[in-house]
Write the structure tokens for this entry.
Amino acid sequence: MITYEVELAVPETVDADLAGESRTIEVDEDEYVLAAARAADVWLPADCQQGWCTTCAAELLEGEVDHSAAKRYYDVDRRADLVLLCVAKPRSDLRVLTHQQEAMLDHRAANSLPPGRSKR
Ligand code: FES
């Protein structure tokens, strides 16, 4: 079993306990980043946990993830470095910027793609 280090950077602008801070957690290769974060007491936004709704979207700043379990994820999302943490398994050490649902929804709209189950 390979375990990777995943740095979760929380933007200053969000209403969250860790706003403006980063936490580094360990995530096994067969584990989803969101679940590993929650197990480490880092509570990130999520809803469907199936790679559908985009609530858990984040920006991948560094590294590679496996999204094969996502119900709705597009190649253009990957090229824009937007990831869904609920179905993202690490394939390297990662750095991610959390709380990026708005960016994901804007990106999907700009590419004429379905947004997922939007909350806005
Ligand atoms: S929680 Fe719905 S896509 Fe991740």
